Structure formats: structure tokens, C-alpha cells
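Researcher: Please translate sequence to C-alpha cells.
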Amino acid sequence: MAVGLAGCAAGWLVVGRPEAAWDDLFLALVCGVVVTSEAAHGARALSGRPWVGWATALVSGAAAATWLLPDPLPFT
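Model: Translation complete:
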């Protein structure tokens, strides 16, 4: 969970530190960390390698930070 939370913070910095109300921040952190934890557990179980779980947690956490953006990213 700590890696997912670090990924959320890194993603928030990468997308330009958007302003967020408390309810938006709560959604991104709690739901992002829960989804990140489940994705990391599944990736680790399916691959059999522990580093895959850590990498999935970091990338999923960073992706969860995009939920704070008011508009979609320009390249999507």
C-alpha cells in the first residue's frame, strides 16, 4: 500500500499538481490505493515474481492520480 501511495504522489506531481477538493483527494487516495493493492497482488500471483507486484503498484498508483484532473489528458 505504501508503494501505491507513493505512486499516487508521483503521479500527482507528473500531471501538474492539480487543485483538488477534499472529496476528490479522498476518492483518488482511498480507491486508488485499494485498486492498486488488488492489481499488485494479482500481478504478483499470476507472474510469480515479486518485482512485478511492486512495479504494478507504483504504476497503478500513478495512474490513480489522473482521477484528480478536471479534463482528460490531451493525448487520450
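Researcher: Any highlights?
Model: The chain is about 70% helix and 0% strand.
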